[in-house]
Amino acid sequence: QVQLVESGGGLVQPGGSLRLSCVASGYVDEIFAVAWYRQAPGKDRELVARTSASGNTDYSDSVKGRFSISADTSKSTIYLQMNSLMSDDTAVYYCHAATQGATDAVSHYWGQGTQVTVSS
Question: Fewer C-beta neighbours within 10 Å, C or N terminus of the chain?
């Protein structure tokens, strides 16, 4: 019911900034929470930031104060603003959405991922 497509990744120097975008399509009205995850080589996928329709927002301790998640409902897009990037931020970043329909069943959707490489 929902498709997610990330963009905005690339190569950036330490201390630089990037803004990732994730466009949602399909039955977007059922989305009640969105998040950004990342997975570095040899590591498990980890939650970076998440927000819900209620406005609750959480960040990983490793990115708190540097990253910011936001959503533009008119464009069905979620963003991850990344500032003061460090080499440890290098990973594939994935957007995630959770939906709940009339049956109250929760479904999870993932984007294809976008590579972020922080290197001098």
Answer: C
